[in-house]
Request: fold
Amino acid sequence: MLKSLMAGAALTLAALPIMATAQEGAKFDCVVAAVAADTKASIGAAMAGAGDDASRDALFKQLSTVTEDCVAKHGIADAQKAAYFDYSLARISREWLVGDIAKLNLSSAIVDKALDFGPAGANPDLSSDMSEDQIMKIVQAYIDSGVDIEKVDTTAWEKVGAYAAATSIYWNKRKLLPF
Reply:
């Protein structure tokens, strides 16, 4: 009996990190899971320059409402609200842009590698404009991967740039969220 009690306690203790990780994931996923697919597409397109200011403002208000619900649901601190909103907006945009630029036969992974995005990456801050050096790193990375950049139109490059900006915000805001 003592052995089964100790085994049960050991299993419970072993499950705690998994349960905590699942809860952390729920916080990161809450907004994304709560936003409808068509709204995600509208947000992604807006971040890539589609629509007018009024339609973008309406989308951001809608996203803000969902974000506030998730903040309340998960007990996210007031000091983290802005970073959480920015993270969620960037994540939705980034995920939409991955699919959209893939339709143009371009890989987002090339941008990630060129600018060192990722959990252990440098994640340069692109909240303002990209530098000429950063743009050239992306272009060269596409050339190195076999893309004929002369055949890539302006709209595609704008989406690649929007993806880079969203990815920068995504990783940098995620670092600010300690959950």
Q: What stands out?
A: Residues 97 and 163 are 6 Å apart (CA to CA). The chain is about 75% helix and 0% strand.
